[in-house]
Amino acid sequence: MLPFAYRVFQAIVQEQTFYRAAQTLNVTPSAISHSVNQLEKELGFPLFIRNRTGVELTPDGESVLPLIQGVINAEDRLQQAAANINGMNAGSVRLGAFSSVCITWLPPIIRQFKQDFPQIDINLEQAGFSDIAAAVKTGRLDLGLSALPVAEKLTVLPLVKDEIYCITPNDFIPANRTTVTAADLVDQNFILQRGDYDKDTKAALDHYQIRPNALRFSIDDQSILAMVEAGMGMGILPELALERVSGNVNVYPFDQRFYRTICLVVNSEQAKAPSTAKMIAAITAYVAHKYPDKVLQHPHVG
Q1: pLDDT tens digits for 23-69?
Q2: What is the C-alpha radius of gyration for the chain, rounded to an integer number of angstroms?
Q3: Distances (CA, A) of 288 to 66, 250, 285
Q4: Alpha carbons 73 and 267: distance in angstroms, whole number
Q5: Hey, is 32 helix, strand or coil?
Q6: Distance between CA atoms of residues 184 and 153, nearest Å
Q7: Please, which residues have CB within 8 angstroms of residue 34's CB and are 6 or more apart in sequence?
Q8: pLDDT digits 0-9 by tens, 261-282
Q9: Distant-in-sequence, close-in-space partners of 177: CB < 8 Å, separation ≥ 6
Q10: Taking Cα atoms as reference points, which of 225, 241, 236 lies closest to residue 185?
Q11: Fewer CB within 10 Å, N side or C side of the chain?
Q12: Record keywords: Transcription regulation included (predicted)?
């Protein structure tokens, strides 16, 4: 069986304090401290250092993190395989996703998944593209929904192309009345989320030579629409983000089309876990049903 100290290590990394780790594991803080001391003694070096807000990993702790996480994940896969052999369909899935996927895709996916596999626990974490890929690489997440390109060495399944649109005040009409061109964007300010100013969104803005000092940043997609509606500038949002937000604005394609490719990222070892494989199948089936004409071909995982 898995040493309890490994679970303690994992909980501290996730919660960033001994106290919250103790609450997560339903033990006393002194039990957490004792377990860490024993593990550090066994390994021969400190794992954590204290800071003003809690604790953080030492460089040596960072180096063993993926190894300990790998042992934990292997134990979880063993337990899931045993449960499946016994007909229980038990286990857990740790899924990471970015904002617009959390709002649009995941509610129906998770609702159906819980109906089909009620004994499989789902843990969801919302994060940015690069953070999701990094967490999947270390094994802290089993799989994630991100966007290409993915820097980490992971199994990547392209799912669908998501077109990027220009959001304008409702009294704005492009010169050609259908698409936004470079001439329409002269001296315009753009409003976007700071985390979105990378990859495909940045490529669109760079193509039209939008200066960095013409950018304004907002906290979420709905706020972007509110600021555009108030006449503070134009917005730039992908189609998926527009499904669950509303405002008195116009939505136009750019004259040169830009897309982001939404993808699944999976650690090849974690893809072997029965619960992870079931979630991959659930997500790909949902996308294929929702976008029958847009879904991308992707490789088999497992």
Answers
A1: 999 999 899 999 999 999 999 999 999 888 889 999 999 999 999 98
A2: 23
A3: 33, 29, 5
A4: 11
A5: helix
A6: 40
A7: none
A8: 999 999 888 888 888 999 999 9
A9: none
A10: 236
A11: N
A12: yes
The first and second tokens of residue 270, run together, are 């974690």
Q: Which of 177, 182, 180, 203 is nearest to 192 (CA)?
A: 203
Q: Which residue matches tokens 């976008």?
A: 291
Dihedral sign (CA 206, 246, 228, 99): negative
Q: Where are the alpha helices (DSSP H) in the chain?
A: 4-15, 18-25, 29-43, 59-85, 99-104, 106-116, 129-138, 199-207, 221-229, 274-290
What CA–CA distance (Å, rounded) separates 41 from 29?
A: 18
Q: In terms of pTM, does the model score above 0.70?
A: yes
Question: How is 48-89 classified by DSSP, letter by letter?
Answer: EEE-SSSEEE-HHHHHHHHHHHHHHHHHHHHHHHHHHHTT--
